[in-house]
């Protein structure tokens, strides 16, 4: 039984990037042996085990044979006779097919180190085309390492384009597509990710509303993302909202169900799409501010307005003074206490009417 560090941890160590997680491959072992050593099994299609102390993933070396279409449909062989080289051969890119043994020696049968030195993302074998998710993964890696001047090998790009033309991406589940998008948002490179997929003709296949995508929007989005603090709680939400900002509101209706996007992302994108024209004006009136606050329901969900302001702050097309003015007006309106209306003796539906008038007056004073 031999254990090797594999994949992203080895790649990022060679690139001198922070290592966020470590995955291991185990050669020459059976599931029974792993369980006897105290590992707990988590994989169903192929045996993946969690270390009893570190909880890091240890997978038995395996080969894969395609049967069927799409991301699934693989038959795995994880017998103890599978070699490390066979396991590495099934991986997507050469830079991800490097292993490191317990003595620190690198095993690199497919030239991953040379491709790292040359800043090239290259597929390991023609088996790459059996998994359409790899089109999105390579686009994500191309975006993540864009700052290091990585490029996709021409032969790999041709293979990806062929997979797109053959409509292989249609076999992917929406959940798997969203996972790749969200990872690219985490990397802060959704603009480069989009450019790569756009060149392949794949962008509107995964996000149908992005028909407007062009280099001008890519540059504007990149500029906005560069100004963001990547430790922000809403870092991914802000990028996502700016990404979809040029969409029509109709195009964004129901995307949480259609594309299996989390509700908070869909809501934020729609909020910004609906209100960015008001934010673009240099003057805010009492009526337009109150209408915005009501649509956003800041009375019960002030966080929606706060997120909208964060998106607008990142958008270079928006005047920050407008945002500050709206924030001041919202603060004044929120300070109007419903209890103060009740204490004046109003009852029933009149309370709501008087509360609206008081909020309108507070906004008007704040805008002076």
TrEMBL record:
It comes from the Bacteria. Residues 3-122 form the Poly A polymerase head domain. One of its GO terms (molecular function) is metal ion binding. InterPro entries: CCA_bact (IPR012006), NT_sf (IPR043519), PolA_pol_head_dom (IPR002646), PolyA_RNA-bd (IPR032828), tRNA_CCA-adding_enzyme (IPR050124). Residues 150-212 form the tRNA nucleotidyltransferase/poly(A) polymerase RNA and SrmB- binding domain. Keywords: ATP-binding, Magnesium, Metal-binding, Nucleotide-binding, Nucleotidyltransferase, RNA repair, RNA-binding, Transferase, tRNA processing. GO terms for biological process: RNA repair; tRNA 3'-terminal CCA addition. Its cofactor is Mg(2+). PANTHER family: MULTIFUNCTIONAL CCA PROTEIN. Belongs to the tRNA nucleotidyltransferase/poly(A) polymerase family. This is tRNA nucleotidyltransferase.
